[in-house]
Design goal:
The protein is an alpha/beta fold. The protein has helices at about 40-55, 70-80, 85-100, 120-130, 205-215, 230-245, 275-280, 285-295, 305-325, 340-360, 365-385, 390-405, 425-440, 445-455; strands spanning about 5, 10-15, 20-25, 60-65, 135, 140-145, 180-185, 200, 220-225, 250-255, 260, 265, 300, 460-465, 470-475. The protein folds into three domains: about 15-275, HUPs (Rossmann fold), CATH 3.40.50.620; about 285-410, Orthogonal Bundle (Isoleucyl-tRNA Synthetase, Domain 1); about 425-475, no CATH class. It contains 14 helices and 15 strands. A four-stranded parallel β-sheet has the order 4-3-9-10, sandwiched between helices. Strand 11 and strand 12 form a beta hairpin. Helix 8 crosses helix 9 (about 305-325). The protein is globular. The protein starts with a strand and ends with a strand. Residues about 420-425 have low confidence and may be disordered.
């Protein structure tokens, strides 16, 4: 039975969704004013894994991950680059989806963008004003924190102990320094929408509440994000959501630890970061995914070249095992009635692997423990192979299949793409396409089609449209 650490309760709890076989899951997405860095990638990969594991256990998961395409950071960056905010946001939203694909992250069921939900946000803010939780001052609308008696229940902070600071919005016109913005008035040169309070745009916190509840319902099962979002972002989401509906907003709050660089949080403001896409030029996506899953998601994780190299070596070991098994002739299932003692022991480890794997993973999504089960099986299978028993081929095939089955929720060991989307391979592909186009001009269709067919076997899809050839890599 799956147990998850619920930040709201401060302890592990048995996971019981509202509906027995369905999970409503929301995870905070990016603000698209730049490429995301490798620290930002941690929640994307971790909660992709949790989603996959829930599906592995038989749940139907409805997964929403938003895109914040309207924010002060976007406006400021657009001004620096001399482009419209909408253009900047679209550029980096496209890059975000490209990089998610390169990391092997499954597309969300719902990918709401803030600019598509402004009407719903205005409706939500209006309801809060009508209930007395919101108030307007010169076109800005704020939430009365002290009116919500449960404020602080997620972060464990008492209202009386809270002080206005770096993460609390301070404006002189607010009734209380702790009150936060639901709606902001816009300057004439800034993006804005007509509202009952004048032309403006949504505050940051209200966006996630509205997109989560619009796509998944008033009460959701899981809300996930980085540990740094607990206060004030997630705390404010609870307040504004439950004040409006009178219902519990989310039942399980799941937070990942932060990625550190030499003991400090990795962040753009500190300048100690690397873009995820730059890391992917040096390491394949499975190395990056393994790097994250090799440490428990709630613990801080140190980013270093050594740790990535260790992850790469671990991934390579498993693929070497898979390769050696695939090279064996295993047409027949083989008899298990006359197994040697060592064969029986290996078969027992294979048949018990899923139970042991789930036993680890069910303890607060313990991916290091789950990986331990996988590597134990690989180690025992390799030892059995080296013994050269007559029955080893079909047992090794069973072991390989079990390794791939258990690795699927982590997005690992399902078969490496034979072509990298970066570096020298890309140059070689472009050269091949030039050769192919030259062959087509000479009407050597047989050889041109052979190149296209061989590339498809390698995972490269070539498309010809209006005399132009393009290619994409199947990274799944």
């Amino acid at each position: 039975m799956l147990h998850l650490y619920n930040t709201l309760k401060g302890e592990q709890e048995k996971f019981e969704p509202l509906e027995d076989d369905k999970v409503r899951f929301y995870s905070c997405g990016p603000t698209v004013y730049d490429y995301f860095h490798i620290g930002n990638a941690r929640p994307f990969i971790v909660f992709d894994g949790l989603r996959r594991y829930l599906e592995f256990k038989g749940y139907k998961v409805e997964f929403t991950q938003n895109v914040t395409d309207l924010d002060d950071k976007i406006i400021d960056r657009a001004e620096e680059e001399g482009v419209e905010p909408e253009e900047l946001a679209e550029k980096y939203a496209e890059a975000y989806f490209e990089d998610l694909d390169r990391l092997g992250v499954k597309e969300a069921d719902y990918v709401p963008r803030v600019t598509e939900y402004v009407d719903e946000i205005i409706e939500h803010v209006s309801a809060l004003v009508e209930k007395g939780y919101g108030y307007e001052v010169e076109g800005d609308v704020y939430f009365r924190v002290r009116e919500f008696s449960d404020y602080g229940k997620l972060s464990g902070r008492s209202i009386d102990d809270l002080k206005s600071g770096a993460r609390v919005e301070v404006e002189a016109e607010k009734e209380d320094p702790l009150d936060f913005a639901l709606w902001k008035s816009s300057d004439p040169d800034e993006p804005g929408w007509d509202s009952p309070w004048g032309r403006g745009r949504p505050g940051w916190h209200i966006e996630c509440s509205v997109m989560a509840q619009t796509t998944l319902g008033d009460t959701i099962d899981i809300h996930a994000g980085g540990h740094d979002l607990i206060f004030p972002h997630h705390e404010n989401e609870i307040a504004q959501s439950e004040a409006r509906t009178g219902k519990q907003f989310c039942r399980y709050w799941i937070h990942n630890g932060l990625l550190e660089f030499e003991g400090e949080k990795m962040s753009k403001s500190l300048g100690n970061f690397e873009y995820a896409r730059d890391v992917l030029e040096e390491y394949d996506r499975e190395t990056v995914r393994y790097f994250y899953f090799s440490t428990h998601y709630r613990k801080p994780l140190n980013f270093s070249e050594k740790n990535l190299e260790d992850a790469k070596s671990a991934v390579d070991r498993v693929y070497e095992f898979i390769r050696t098994v695939e090279e064996l002739d295993t047409d027949e299932d083989g008899s298990e009635a006359s197994l040697s003692d060592s064969g029986k022991k290996l078969l027992d480890r294979i048949e018990s692997a899923r139970d042991r794997y789930e036993g680890e993973m069910d303890s607060d999504f313990n991916t290091p423990g789950g990986l331990g089960v996988i590597f134990d099986l690989v180690k025992r299978a390799n030892k059995f192979r080296d013994e050269g028993k007559s029955e080893n081929e079909h047992l090794l095939q069973k072991a390989k299949e079990k390794v791939m089955e258990l690795s699927e929720p982590l997005g690992l060991f399902q078969g490496r793409a034979k072509v990298s989307p970066f570096g020298l391979e890309e140059d070689l592909l472009e050269l091949l396409l030039e050769v192919r186009n030259a062959l087509r001009e000479k009407q050597d269709w047989e050889l041109a089609d052979r190149i296209r067919s061989e590339l498809k076997e390698m995972g490269v899809e070539v498309k010809d449209q209006e005399g132009v050839s393009t290619w994409t890599v199947d990274r799944n």
